[in-house]
What does this fold into?
Amino acid sequence: MGKLFNLCSPVVLHPHTNYFQSLTEAIISQQLSDKAATTIVNRFKALFSGTDFPSPKQVLRKSDADLRSVGVSGAKASYIKNLARAVEEKSVHFADVDKMSDEEVIEMLVKVKGIGRWTAEMFLIFSLGRTDVFSLGDLGLRNAIKKLYGLRQDPSPKQLQKISSRWQPYRTCASLYLWASLNNR
It folds into this structure.
């Protein structure tokens, strides 16, 4: 890790506070380039005039066709509405999230169709600012570790677990530097 600290500029985490927004944007961004995701997120927000970001109720009032008209796929429109419904019905309850363990947050979120473990882990890092999260399923982290350790093959989940355990309880910090290293090579 010392190599990364010397190679990369300091990395600072600025957690997001609108949890519904961060999860909605994560759903929109799944499997898209940053540029495409930003474009669609901005169009999505523009559907809801007079607000920085819509509430779950406002989202539920829009038709799937409205959401698709700004570039949200049919599946993602469904996932966003699943999230909005879960928030409204309080099966996803953000008020208690600070009292919950990482695994409890993940378990709550993955019950929403369209949110998987990776999205929940990114929520822990970028919305809640949790300090000890390492996503074994993140392609960027796997690639960064492969380069950093000079591995010929992609690291297995077991190898990733062993390597990342050295960084506990600051695996989030390690993750941020690993991601940053991909932009500096």
User: Anything to note?
Assistant: Residues 2-12+134-183 form a domain with the Endonuclease Iii, domain 2 fold (CATH 1.10.1670.40). The chain has two domains: 2-12+134-183, 19-126. The two ends are 15 Å apart (CA to CA).
